[in-house]
Design goal:
By secondary structure, this protein is mainly beta. It has one domain. It is built from 3 helices and 13 strands; from the N terminus they run βββαββββββαββββα. The strands form 2 sheets. The chain has a 7-stranded antiparallel β-sheet with strand order 4-5-6-7-8-11-12, covered by helices on one side. Strands 1, 2, 3, 9, 10 and 13 form a 6-stranded antiparallel β-sheet that branches. Strand 4 and strand 5 form a beta hairpin. Helix 1 crosses helix 3. The chain is globular.
């Protein structure tokens, strides 16, 4: 059984929706104040870029005004070099060198519409506690080009104009983890949207 839940931007509570009914939580687009340096939201950007990889522990190193390095603690030792695309304050690209090439990811916050949905999928006996039979996924309403991820054999192109194949890009979502993990992603998203001042390019 699958249900979609509403998680308000104020995080005041979770409201169960009727099965197969889509509900969204809108983030208010107040008039933005003075813009802060991009460095302020780089930890949030790093969290969202790393999010699809799972809940692995990491640290941030080599933080600059427009870039940051993310390094995992576990055996995988993923290392992501994340930076803002010049003159595109809300578009970020990351690179990671692998044995057979380079993983390149791009997160474009101009493709987000400011809403998100928390989905619940449950199996097993209804009498069992939800934490034992349910998984959750967080879906951000966004265009197909919001998140791109592809492994290139070599980096022989301009990362500011990465030639992602069409099927490498999709809307942004995080799935198959406990509900408690999603608060940090929603908080990070809201801070980024405040900094971007809406769908700014």
């Amino acid at each position: 059984m699958k249900r979609k839940l509403v998680w308000s931007s104020a995080l005041s509570g979770i409201v169960l929706a009727v099965a197969a009914t889509i509900c969204a939580a809108s983030i208010s687009h107040a008039q933005p104040g003075p813009l802060k340096p991009v460095a302020v939201i780089l930890p949030d950007v790093a969290l969202l870029i790393h999010g699809p990889s799972g809940e692995y522990s990491y640290k941030l190193t080599s933080t600059a005004d427009d870039s940051v390095t993310l390094e995992e603690f576990d055996d995988r030792r993923m290392r992501l070099e994340i930076r803002q695309i010049p003159d595109k304050k809300c578009i970020f690209v990351s690179t990671s060198q692998e044995r057979d090439g380079f993983d390149v990811m791009q997160l474009d916050f101009t493709k987000f519409d400011g809403t998100y949905q928390l989905w619940e999928a449950c199996r097993g006996a209804a009498s069992a506690p939800p934490e034992n039979r349910c998984t959750y996924s967080l879906h951000f309403s966004s265009e197909k080009q919001a998140f791109c991820d592809y492994r290139f054999s070599k980096l022989d192109f301009d990362l500011n104009k990465t030639p992602f194949p069409e099927d490498a890009c999709h809307s942004y979502a995080l799935g198959a983890r406990e509900k408690k993990f999603y608060t940090k992603y929603i908080d990070a998203f809201e801070r980024i949207k405040e900094q971007c001042g809406g769908n700014s390019r």
